[in-house]
Specification:
globular; alpha/beta; 9-stranded mixed beta sheet
Length: about 450
């Protein structure tokens, strides 16, 4: 069934609608998948790109920020594949790599051999073509309100990875989903991932986004995490896109009872970035941790919007976000904790801190609590400020140059959240990446 587009207000929205229509008959999938795409396309045709009058997007007005629409990326040529291999952000770590180049899964760069018992990995494109059982679980998790980025990603549903960790399975080697952009001209990608973690399973997934500087490409990704009861699961995320890129990403998470979950997002890249997280505590006695860090410079705009839904009793959540802003950068954190009426004995704490290295930088912190239960412990806090001059003087008085002293203080500030990553190798690699950011600032 074709959907008639509603009038669209901007040229960007018109171009996106035309692109959706042109790809409608070319994308793989059965009737259920096509129905999912149609519903997403209809939502976009109806609502278009978000703007400042929509509360959740007040500080990231896509109608104003997205002036152009890049063409859909084509499958990469051998040169692009060769270049993508060099972009791996963790080349020294022993990880099971699943590599998408320009939004297309590349088998020769990926490791699908000798999968552990209980681990299933299939590419989305193949799953859609063959009607794999995991495709029926795509779209089960939904954002609380209309999300244009997620709607576009679903409307273009084409490739990505589907991962299932069976009940009781323990994955010893982290799985690394690499999104690499290696074209020489702007293009748009829409990758989709689904991770299903069975009851009492244990594992770590890393997702990274990398690309060359100076190319105004557009990356729109979505990931769904379904975590079963008693599971222990860690998700580490590095957004290190090229400095001219637009990065839109949606993460939808549902957690079962007695599970333990940690999410560690690190942002250093993209010109404009928006990371939307919807996390639902769907069972009792869940322990959840969100520890993120943002390192921004030049005119970077990075928006992290987090909604945590405490729907069941006895759960605890901790959120800590550290943001370093230099030059004319802009950092936004919107964090909302919702405690439903049945979620008694909830223990939820949220803190967001910004370190301002420039008078021109801008920090927007908006923590929120919505509590509908009476036996809870909840709190939030937000701070922003410059480097402590007394501490700087302490270092300077001992002969440490000013830039080196600043680097030590900045490292100490941001390392608090990075050090909460449980995997030793990933933690050290990301601390080194933070040090590299500081070293470039010093030079």
């Amino acid at each position: 069934m074709n959907v008639e587009p509603h009038p669209i207000r901007t040229s960007t929205e018109q171009a996106l609608a035309i692109s959706i229509e042109s790809m409608r008959a070319k994308l793989p999938g059965n009737a259920a998948v096509k129905k999912l795409r149609e519903a997403a396309a209809s939502s976009f045709f109806e609502s278009g790109l978000p703007h400042r009058r929509i509360e959740e997007w007040k500080y990231t007005d896509l109608r104003a920020l997205m002036r152009d629409v890049a063409p859909l990326a084509s499958p990469p040529n051998p040169d692009a594949i060769k270049q993508a291999k060099k972009l791996d952000p963790f080349p020294e770590l022993k990880l099971r790599r699943l590599v998408l180049v320009n939004g297309t899964f590349i088998p020769e760069l990926s490791d699908l051999s000798a999968l552990e018992n209980g681990l299933t990995i299939v590419t989305l494109a193949r799953a859609l073509t063959n009607g794999h059982k995991l495709t029926h679980r795509i779209g089960e998790l939904k954002s609380e309100t209309y999300d244009a980025a997620l709607a576009l990603n679903t409307a273009f549903l084409n490739d990505g990875v589907l991962i299932e960790i069976a009940e009781g399975t323990q994955i010893s080697q982290p799985i690394h989903i690499v999104h690499a952009f290696a074209e020489k001209a702007p293009a748009a990608t829409y990758a989709r991932s689904l991770v299903v973690v069975g009851a009492n399973a244990k594992g770590t997934v890393v997702e990274s986004f990398v690309g060359a500087d100076g190319i105004a490409y557009q990356s729109n990704s979505a990931t769904e995490l379904q975590i079963g009861a008693e599971a222990q699961f860690d998700f580490v995320r590095l957004q290190a896109e090229g400095n001219a890129a637009i990065h839109l990403s949606t993460l939808l998470i549902d957690i079962g009872q007695n599970a333990k979950f940690s999410l560690n997002p690190i942002t250093t890249g993209a010109s404009i970035a928006r990371f939307s997280v919807s996390l639902r505590f769907g069972g009792k006695n869940i322990e959840g941790c969100f520890a993120g860090a943002n390192l921004l410079r030049a005119k970077q705009h990075a928006d992290t919007t987090l909604v945590i839904d405490h729907a069941m009793p006895g759960c605890s959540s901790r959120e800590l976000v550290k943001t370093v802003l230099d030059d004319d950068s802009r950092g936004i954190f919107q964090g909302r904790i919702v405690v439903k009426p049945d979620a008694q004995k909830t223990d939820a704490r949220m803190a967001t801190h910004a370190l301002m290295l420039s008078d021109k930088a801008e920090s927007i912190n908006k923590p929120e609590l919505e509590i509908f239960a009476d036996d809870v412990q909840c709190g939030h806090g937000a701070t922003s400020g410059a480097l402590d001059e007394n501490l700087l003087f302490y270092f300077l008085a001992r002969g440490i140059p000013r830039k080196e002293a600043e680097a030590l203080l900045i490292h100490s500030f941001v390392a608090e959240s990075i050090e909460m990553i449980l995997h030793d190798g990933l933690r050290e690699a990301l601390l080194e990446r933070a040090d590299d950011w500081l070293a470039r600032r010093q030079s």
